[in-house]
Specification:
- The chain contains 24 helices and two strands.
- The longest helix is centred in the C-terminal third of the chain and has 36 residues.
- Helices cover 71% and strands 1% of the residues.
């Protein structure tokens, strides 16, 4: 094999390295801050949320209202200034389901903001939980994720990781090597960041429908920060090491199994747009994986070094997320929480888990059963419902399961449906149940070893 002589200069390497390192620092470098592990983007988002918390719900409702009006006007009148603009058409010319979700989200947002209508719509456990707790977080995260994600995506880091990690990601998870960045960004940062990153890569033609669906539902893992919040709420902080190790083991096993079974295995290996061609992951003769990855990275960095274009795209991405995602999350999340709060649906759905938990020798099985399914509505509900259970063993199991389920309609689930990813509501229900059934025995086995 002939050795390859690098064709890129030191300056070319710096064009790749400096923006990519800044992106890694912002999204993937956790450090202690005010008593918790977090990342710089989360600190920036929390600062914005803290400074403007009183007005963000109102601003968010204005964006939801603008999305609704824009969608209705586009569907009825199809004005040329929207239809002739690729950006505005993408914003407002959406399918019927998303149009309905925008209307419902903006109406529920207005009812919550001004406390109009029945209290079960806007109470602190339903609409208010979304509008005053989750929406401000998403609003702030979207602001910085939209502006700064290009540093991770557009300067060659994914190309380098793809070349280095394909031999691991393909056989183990049936995914391209570049998807490793999605997983790490979710794990260290936030699951919402993972979904946004995956959606952008899917739209740009780097993932097939199957790959995007697998990554969005399997690798948009719960962040370390949220895991700490759950275990603290369960009064098991002293067990964090065993708790997080259990989550990692269960999560990895689920990530190996889920891509190999329906519905994810049935997704087609076609692309978002017909003209997208498969990304070639073969490494040419004469190159090591690192050399080939670095060559691709420097070429991508050279193509994307125009900062004005990147800034414009970043601002458009922020507006796209605010108008496209916020009303859908508000609609889906609020409806799911209303069902959880005002009906016994989740209690009924939890009944089949009683014999399973009993068979697995989990104490207080009846009390724990409904926490197995209520997490589908909101990630905090299992912890809220299960925190009163006396058995530490059972609280440990609930805390672990609630984090490994991943599909929460008030956050990641809503984002997945609001994104362009090829995921349906039925898919989310099936994936949620499968993840629960796969991870529950593993978590209980680990708990029996620990306790």
């Amino acid at each position: 094999m002939s050795k390859h002589t690098p064709s890129y200069t030191f300056a070319d390497t710096m064009k790749f390295l400096i923006p990519s390192l800044i992106g890694v620092f912002l999204f993937m470098l956790p450090f202690p801050y005010k008593g918790e592990m977090t990342i710089p983007v989360a600190i920036l988002a929390k600062w914005v949320e803290g400074q403007f918390h009183s007005i963000i719900p109102t601003i968010s409702e204005l964006f939801m209202f603008a999305a609704t009006i824009g969608t209705i006007v586009t569907k009825i009148a199809q004005p040329s200034f929207i239809m002739d603009s690729a950006f505005l058409r993408r914003l407002f010319d959406v399918n019927g389901l998303f149009g309905v979700a925008r209307v419902v989200g903006s109406v529920l947002g207005a009812m919550t903001l001004w406390k109009i209508g029945p209290e079960w719509v806007w109470s602190e456990n339903t609409g208010a939980l979304l509008l005053y707790s989750l929406i401000p977080i998403l609003f702030s995260v979207f602001l910085f994720a939209g502006l700064f994600l290009p540093l991770l995506l557009d300067f060659g880091l994914l190309e380098l990781c793809g070349a280095l990690l394909t031999k691991i990601m393909r056989p183990v998870f049936k995914l391209p090597g570049r998807s490793s960045i999605d997983c790490i960004a979710s794990w260290l940062g936030d699951g919402t960041i993972g979904v946004l990153l995956t959606n952008k890569q899917y739209e740009d033609g780097f993932y097939t429908k199957r790959e995007a669906a697998v990554i969005g539902t399997t690798f948009s893992v719960v962040s370390i920060t949220f895991s700490i919040v759950v275990i603290t709420y369960m009064k098991l902080e002293h067990m964090f090491g065993a708790y997080y190790f259990t989550i990692v083991v269960a999560g990895l096993i689920a990530a190996i199994i889920m891509p190999r079974i329906p519905p994810l295995s049935k997704k087609p290996d076609t692309y978002y747009r017909e003209h997208h061609v498969p990304v070639d992951e073969t490494i040419p003769a004469g190159y090591t994986p690192f050399q080939w990855g670095l060559k691709q990275a420097t070429e991508v960095a050279q193509r994307n070094s125009h900062m004005g274009k990147l800034l414009k795209n970043g601002v458009q991405t922020v507006i796209d997320m605010w108008l496209g995602v916020l009303p859908v999350v508000m609609a889906i999340g609020t409806v799911a929480l209303i069902i959880a709060e005002t009906t016994p649906v989740f209690e009924w759905l939890g009944k089949p888990f009683v014999p399973i938990l009993t068979l697995l020798q989990v104490p207080e099985a009846a009390a724990a059963a409904q926490t197995m399914v209520v997490g589908f509505a909101d990630m905090f509900l299992p912890a809220i419902i299960g925190s009163g259970i006396e058995s530490e063993f059972t609280r440990f199991v609930i805390a672990c399961v609630s984090v490994t389920q991943l599909i929460y309609m008030s956050e990641v689930g809503g984002l997945l449906l609001a994104s362009k990813l090829p995921i349906t509501f039925k898919d989310l229900v099936v994936i949620f149940l499968l993840r629960t059934l796969i991870t529950l025995p593993i978590i209980v086995f680990m708990a029996h070893l620990i306790f």
